[in-house]
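Attaching the record inline, Q. Sequence:
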Amino acid sequence: MNFKVLYLIAIALPLTACLAQENNVNEEKAENSKSLNINKDSLTVVEFYRAHMGNNQPSRSTGTVGKGTLINGKLPPFYGPNFQYFDMNSYLSSRAFTHHITRDIILEAYQSLEKELPSRYFYLMELSSEEGGKLYPHKTHQNGLSVDFMMPKLKDGKDYYGLDTLGVNHYLLKFNDHGEYDKDPSITIDFDVMARHLLILNDKAEEKGYKIAKVIIKIEYKDKLFATEYGKKLKSSGIYLVQNLSPLVNSIHDEHYHVDFEKIK
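Structure, as predicted:
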């Protein structure tokens, strides 16, 4: 059975499977060892990255994020000094390709965050297929200019990673309208770090003639986001956060934030 089939099976698992896996997570170990342990699985993703690094030719996006393709897509590394891709099967199923500009924006932003927040670790989520097009179950992510980022979290005010090792099942976690984890309200979204990340992403994009076209988060989060130190700067930055979402789309953007980039006209 190939990795794509395995991934589609994994993403189709019911919520009960997510909760069962979540209960088995050793949260203390996850906090102390935030990145993937070096084992045969991690070596597999390194080999996959090396085999799919591609050539030096630029990428090209056609159409829109909702109906488009990606030509000469690029694969970011599975992990770096302060970040990791969130799911091995997703990565090996070719769901982490992106436009070369998007890749560079992502990696340069992580480099800046490493200097500003040296103790913080981040998780990158799904991007695009190698040739773009439909990426089930996403409605966008089709032309290499869409990215999902995992929400940074706190527990009792301290950096927290105990829920970040669930792989694709992370998309099924539930946080309430205040950004609190449904099963443990002491686990909350770090809105200030999220705002800081978005501002850096936009700065790196503008250096390359691009900008953030749209940010999708749960609508109820916007007031808490804008109330933080960096959230105030985000609110005055002109970066567009969606104003309205369907109930379904709104509910599934409680544990990750979606970013679309576009070329500055």
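The two ends are 45 Å apart (CA to CA). Residues 31 and 161 are 5 Å apart (CA to CA).

More tomorrow.
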